[in-house]
Amino acid sequence: MVHFCSARWYIFTPPFTEEQLGRDLGVSRTPLRDAINALAKDGFVRVEPRRGASVRDFQLRDLIEVYDIRIALEGLAAKLAAGKINHDVLERLADEFKNNDARKLLKADTSLHQIVIESCNNVKLRGMLTNLGNLVQVFRTAGYRSTTRSKSATVYHIKIVKALMNRDGSEAERLMREHIEKTKNEIINEFQAKADNS
Q1: Is residue 88 a contact partner of residue 95, using CB atoms and an 8 Å limit?
Q2: pLDDT in tens, 43-62
Q3: Fold assignment, 60-197
């Protein structure tokens, strides 16, 4: 579970061992070890010899770094994807963004970003953005707890979809970069406000 608390994003969990987690989940140690190592590689888990593993806390610096990378790379992906996405897919997305349900908006948000990444027709760019995907999803999910941020993101998403429908790569890039920058700044402001109140 993600919590926004004073000076950090936390995912709360006590340290755990492979044996303990294996018993709790009913799985053998080999696939569990592989999963823990994959999570550690992605930066979600910290493994300490003889102490076990724990889910790591995310600091504001982590978020800023991820969003700065997204601004550059997803902007480029949007530019490259313009004209390559099926018009029916974009119309379906436009309809999904008319919804007011936070879960459905989160799903549409995730779909839009994934479709842009998958359609950019650049294998290396797609690989870099896919590697960031899990971290981005942690921050994206937390964002839909903020009504203001959710509404702001939805306005941008609709504009991005329209630019993609018009096959306007420059406008899609500009809007994607602006959207991610605005989201980053809103999160920083929330972070600082919570830190000031603690």
Answers
A1: no
A2: 777 777 777 777 767 778 88
A3: Four Helix Bundle (Hemerythrin (Met), subunit A) (1.20.120)
